[in-house]
Amino acid sequence: MLSGKYKILYNKFTRVIDANRVFIDELSTLAYGTDASFYRLLPKIVVKAQDENEVSFLLKECADLLIPVTFRAAGTSLSGQAITDSVLIIAGYHWKNFKILDDGKQIRLQPGLIGARVNGLLAKYNRKIGPDPASINTAMIGGIAANNASGMCCGTAQNSYNTLSSMRIIFWDGTLLDTGCSASKEAFSKSHALFLQDLLLIVKDVRSNQELCQRIESKFKIKNTTGYSLNALIDFKDPFEIIQHLMIGSEGTLGFISEITYHTVIDLKNKAVALVIFNSVENACNVVSVLKNIVVSAVELIDYAGLKSVKDKDGMPQALQNLPITACALLIDTRANSEDHLNNQILEIIKVVPKELLLFPIVFTTNASEYALLWEIRKGLFPSIGAIRKMGTSVIIEDVAFPLENLAVATIVLQDLLKKWGYNEAVIFGHALEGNIHFVFTQNFDVPSEIERYSGFMDEVANIVVKQFNGSLKAEHGTGRNMAPYVLLEWGEQAYDLMYRIKKLFDPYTILNPEVILSKDSGIHLKNLKPIPQADPIIDKCTECGFCEPNCVSADFTLSPRQRIVAFREISRLSTFKQGKKQKEILLKQYQYSGKDTCATDGLCAVSCPVNIDTGKLIKNLRTAEFNSNAKIARYVAANFSFVLIVVSKLLAMANFFQKVLGNPNMLAVSTAFRKVSIKKLPQWNQFLPNGAEALLSNKIKSSESRKVVYFPSCINRTMGLSANDKNEEQLSHKLLKLLNKAGYEVIYPQNVANLCCGMPFLSKGYKDVGNFKIREIEKALYIASENGKLPIITDMSPCLLTLKENNCLGLNLYETVAFIDDFLLPYLTVSPLKDTITVFPVCSIKKMGMTDKLESVAKKCAENVIMTETTCCGFSGDKGFDFPELNQFGLSKLRDDIPGNVTRAYCTSRTCEIGLSLHTGLSYKSIVYLVDEVTKSIK
To answer: 4Fe-4S ferredoxin-type domain spans which residues (predicted)?
Structure first.
């Protein structure tokens, strides 16, 4: 419980801000107290701020009580700069507004937008933002700017500092400054005249010190995010330019960036990449200097250990399997505005790289999937390496830069140093073209001797980087807590004192993210180290990088996959000692709803996880233990499945009858009242709940051309018929049968189809044994029906097909319906595309199977104008949309805004998802089968 100043502060906060966005409970403070670094602090208060007014209010109140405050966006920070034991302000979900300016040449962004999303917005203009960190699919603009993150291709020329146009800043006292607005600057000049006067005095002192100016200039000739952006003091004269450029890389210690406008850069569409393998690290590094003088977009170094860590991933070159221990690779990327230019650049690269230094000939690929795979492997190196660490250890990534001429010898010295200190598993990789090297190693922090080893190693690293090679101790990951003790060593006393003057000017009472960037505590990097206990084999590989979070429907609603893992690890840790019993019980109680009940278990978290961790599997296992008491009921349902479906179908028909009698408003009121009385045990009715289904139709055609297909109608579509708004339609099982017949296919139902199920309803609720029984039952039936696996098999729900594929239904020729339509039906049909604009939603199972492109292909063959929309997941998750409708509502809260007003037709591939999509968009979603049937005729 809060006490003292924090209790007063909480009461002040909740008088103005919705208490549902102000958190003080144990689970929330634990979950949000974790970022991607190896540090952890537990905030006392977490606030999900909604707008600038709220941030201004929060800062004023914190300043009034001299309580520290830290800002957080995505939490992908690696150096401990986004954690606090005080007040944490989250600027994520509510901070996603943007405006594209000047035909894409500029873009105005709030801090909660993910970098990759921004590039998606700019794609039609052939533009992108300059910064391109490896975490761009997860990292948000607020963190990218506040850390001056760079990445693979942007170097220093295209980072946030050099592509900044303007900025909206909220200072410690709540004052808002818009550097792109003359009126705002004029008002600030009056209200903060002394501030500007002191700033200009600092600038004058710096510029009168030639030695210091030279030091600053030399430090920024290579990548450098150690300390503050002192180059702003010599690069600009306008005080507002100086202010906004000092904010870049300030890590929330000088103020809050509530909006930033970037100058965008050209995104060249013709791209090629090659994984070039050299016989030694030295030779690979020496070639980088040659490549610097020709047209390359990026050159990424990967040492032998790094190559070894990814050699078994799908799609990796066979050459990686038997490399000598001296091997080292450069991932070379080149881009151009035409294919001819690209080909010429490729030839030039091949020409300048000495063949005698290579283990294999250079092979460039322009294939989009192969290109993406090689880059995804590189981007996922850090968490991939973390996944093969000894369980219970932390994975640490350091980030240094050297003058390019020193790269080869410095890399070798680093390798020797890692071995000297016993980090034999370490991996070195990085942005070689900029002399920027990352080295990753694992560290046990459980015993003092290991902390001492880490401390000694870091001291020696700092001395070598700074004193021997005049490099940067942080090139792009930010100073944070991790490198704060070494800022003085790197910069010297004059520059260090200058940084404290800047800090004092912007933050006179040191309430903004204290102990980050600047700290008098020489051991700050050895404190508040994150525990990584073993908890479950499913999630033990997790490094808490956060790459999973953008794909999770419940992130920002309850918990994200990373946060579920963090909480479960803590619960497991507390189980190991008696005094943790009470805290464990508190967390378990809070975890029930936030961790278990509202996890969609859709597995999308694994899609973006570099090591394929499916947190949903963990939750399903936890549900298994929880629902063991109801296993008898589950077994009864499974054994009497056809009877249960009939009962459910009758109940749906009854609900449909009362809907017609009472009308939608009255029916909603009555059902909501019943749900409330039952303490939410009864499912939530909505107007798109379908009627009961009719019996399956018999096959109408015997194929003379041996065109046969096995059709397994899902139990959902054998139970659910048409919704009240589906007028003049047939239920899906009838429609798909007729479409298949239209294309000349004889349709075969598996025997005893009324009792068959893919097992998903049982598996998702934790009844693993029952679910596996149903899977083996249907596997046998489908094997017989398909003539021992010879014939193709389709079902009418993509989640059902995914379940069959994921559960080892071997020897079966399984097809997703849209794939079968595209590849095997349309060739036998004539298509007259709709002229209407339609929208199509790829459900989770479509994404997981990699079928989004195929779904889009079918849609575009059947309609002239197609809007592909998506959120992470619709949140309906089988029947969860009835039991926890708030998850579905949250998941689709922004979808309607992405659909143009002229769209009247909407399609997807999952019946239950259609219910939630229809409810929250006002459009009647149907299976895409209806679209295909409407626009096709049989070829006579």
So the answer is: 531-562
